[in-house]
Amino acid sequence: MKRIVLVLVAAMALASAVQTGICAEGAGTAQWIWCPEKDIDPIAEAPAEPRYFVKIFSLEAAPKSAKMEIAVDNVYQLFVNGKLAGEGDNWQNATVYDIAKYLKKGDNVIAVQATNADGPAGFIVAGKVVAADGKAISLNSNSTWKASVKATKGWQDGNVDKSWVKALEMGEYGVQPWGENVQCEMLSQ
Fold this sequence. Notes:
Elements: H1 2-17, E1 31-34, E2 50-59, E3 65-73, E4 75-80, E5 83-88, E6 95-98, E7 106-115, E8 122-130, E9 136-138, E10 146-148, E11 165-166, E12 168-172
Antiparallel strand pairs: 1-12, 2-7, 2-10, 3-6, 3-8, 4-5, 4-7, 8-9, 10-11
């Protein structure tokens, strides 16, 4: 009986822990995003092709910590300052990455190559960098990310030209067609 109670308590604690990161009630600014394209609604159907996304931010010193949780419908490669930091192919399982080791003083670049296989397309990121002075910097996916239908030379390093546009926001975690079908891991705050 004690064992059953312990298992139930552990399961409830795990369910509570999952309510951080992109799954958090009121995570607020993390949006499902995609590359805006004329006459295409990525929530309904998008081309089965890769799209490219970049977030550039500055740090005054190496960070204390930096984590991001990502889910992409369908396949992704995550780059931090030009280095491959992770990849995945199951949009229903968000993955948490500790990216602090890739960050540096000065400009930093988070880059994602997201490839749609069929149907709707989108990706969502909840991320936070804690700077050396304790200040928090959001990496959440939203229209501050740049997007492109093609990779430009050096895009993983933040070399983006005028063809890159603001990412299209499609809604917060829970928006259809993805709903709450993404299994999220705990993202440290």
